[in-house]
Design goal:
mainly alpha
Length: about 500
């Protein structure tokens, strides 16, 4: 069930209304049933996998608490991680592994292995698996008491607003809210609905419109000039941010309507002045997950600079593989790892050059230069992420540097990229709105906070403007199926 579907627009109000009408002591049961129904709308069999992961990690918490020795508790954690990651590996990386094995066999002149069965990737499996595993680690570290009620724990794993594309919640935040008493609060509900409306604007008006341009150009990259490929890559940077951020915002808004608070997953990442800052602002729930449960256990930065860089590269390679079972995702992660290492190694040199050239690093101009340079680096890496293969990514990079052709946009060339003049105007105007809102939030003034302080006669025109923008300019209706969110495939 997609957030941007008619089915969800019926489902969510019913779930919320019943949630506030029934007694507090059985609300978690209602949300658990609604969450499993939400997930089973894709494929009922998917729910069996989620229930398996839930069962394993629930028992791990109980066994960790009852473990009499540190070794017994470590074995429990190891078993929990092994079983969950084995399930994730099988359903997400089976074909990737087979393709690489077959590539090696072909080089050796051996026959290709052909599986006799199909493996279907369950939607959101990476998200709920990591969320469940974080619970195991939190209990093991003594940061959380194990949940004794298996159904409350099952709701933590399956909570429908953030189930299939995050944010990847921590048990210390979401699990503790399951037992809290939530009352209907008009102001909180209004703020949650506004967040959802803003998320729909990002998804339907910006992301899905930018996707038309991106798909048109990337699906026939060899027919477009380097400049057009650059514009398509920038459009993809916009698309993936608005697409992924919109899901997180809608999820947070839906949860807030019911009284739950989810973590913020994005913090204006394209205003970052460095790649390190970008990863503190982009997909925060995943970045912090890897920091807490992989980077720090590997030693973090406590064992010298060389070990720190090895740990960083390991994290980014794993992050790339988490995003998709393809080498182009691994390379995307590796590129960001190289960025991080290069930033760390060159720090003293950059400060020395600025001192020699008498460049004030605190000026607005210098900070904007850093932001633009960081954005360029991020966009370059997005080429590997968006491309269907490494071969296509290399073709695009080659054409950018050898067939730039700035004149290609004249004479109607820009409208050959999939969007007509009217849709291009809508996209540009929508991006101006996004930039205005993001600039305010970057300075500490959120859109929601500003609207909350307005008089009712000032608030409602904004509400209506957003509603009619989505209704009039949203990408849906005849010829357009409800567009799946990009991160569902991960």
């Amino acid at each position: 069930m997609l957030f941007n579907s008619l089915q969800f627009l019926i489902f969510f109000p019913i779930v919320t209304l019943v949630y506030f009408l029934i007694p507090h002591k059985i609300r978690y049961l209602w949300l658990l049933a609604a969450s499993y129904y939400f997930y089973m709308c894709w494929n009922p069999e998917y729910a069996l996998l989620m229930a398996t992961s839930t069962f394993i990690t629930y028992l791990s918490g109980i066994f960790i608490e009852r473990g009499k020795t540190p070794l017994a508790r470590k074995i429990t954690v190891g078993v929990s991680f092994t079983l969950n990651l084995a399930i994730l590996f099988y359903f997400k990386y089976f074909y990737f592994t087979m393709d690489n094995i077959n590539a090696i066999r072909e080089l050796l002149g051996m026959s290709v292995l052909t599986p006799r069965f199909d493996v279907i990737l369950p939607v959101g499996i990476s998200f709920y698996t990591f969320q469940a595993l974080s619970y195991t680690m939190d209990v093991y570290r003594g940061e959380l008491e194990p949940e004794k009620n298996p159904l409350k724990y099952a709701l933590f794993v399956s909570f429908f607003p953030q189930l299939v594309a995050g944010p990847i919640e921590r048990s210390k935040n979401l699990l503790t809210q399951v037992s809290e008493r939530h009352y209907f609060d008009y102001n909180r509900v209004r703020r949650g609905l506004l967040m959802m409306l803003w998320g729909f604007f990002l998804k339907l008006v910006i992301a899905d419109r930018a996707a038309i341009l991106v798909n048109t150009v990337y699906d026939a990259a060899e027919n477009y000039s380097g400049l057009m490929l650059v514009l398509a890559t920038i459009a993809f940077a916009v698309q993936i941010y608005c697409d992924f951020a919109s899901y997180s915002i809608i999820a947070r808004g839906a949860a807030r309507v019911m009284g739950f608070e989810l973590m913020k997953n994005f913090e204006q990442p394209y205003f970052s002045a460095s790649i390190a800052e970008f990863w503190r602002r982009w997909h925060i729930s995943l970045s912090s997950w890897f920091k807490d449960y992989l980077y720090i256990p590997l030693g973090g930065n406590r064992k010298g600079r060389l070990r720190k860089y090895i740990n960083l590269m390991t994290v980014f390679l794993v992050s790339g593989l988490w995003h998709g079972a393809s080498w182009n995702y691994v390379i995307w992660g590796a590129v960001h790892g190289v960025y991080q290492i290069a930033g760390g190694v060159s720090g003293n040199l950059r400060r020395f050059v600025c001192a020699i050239l008498n460049i004030d690093r605190n000026t607005t101009h210098y900070k904007w230069f850093q932001r633009i340079f960081t954005f360029v680096l991020v966009c370059f890496a997005w080429i590997f992420f968006r491309s269907e293969s490494l071969t296509q990514a290399l073709l695009i990079i080659k054409r950018i540097f050898t067939a730039f052709e700035p004149w290609s946009l004249y004479g109607g060339g820009i409208t050959s990229m999939g969007l007509d003049g009217a849709n291009l105007v809508v996209l540009v105007m929508s991006l101006a709105v996004l930039f205005f809102v993001s600039s305010g939030e970057h300075k500490g003034s959120s859109l929601g906070d500003r609207i909350e302080t307005m008089h009712i006669f000032a608030r409602w025109p904004i509400y209506l403007a957003l509603i009619f923008s989505v209704l009039i300019f949203g990408i849906y209706g005849p010829g357009f199926a409800a567009s799946q969110f990009i991160y569902f495939q991960f």
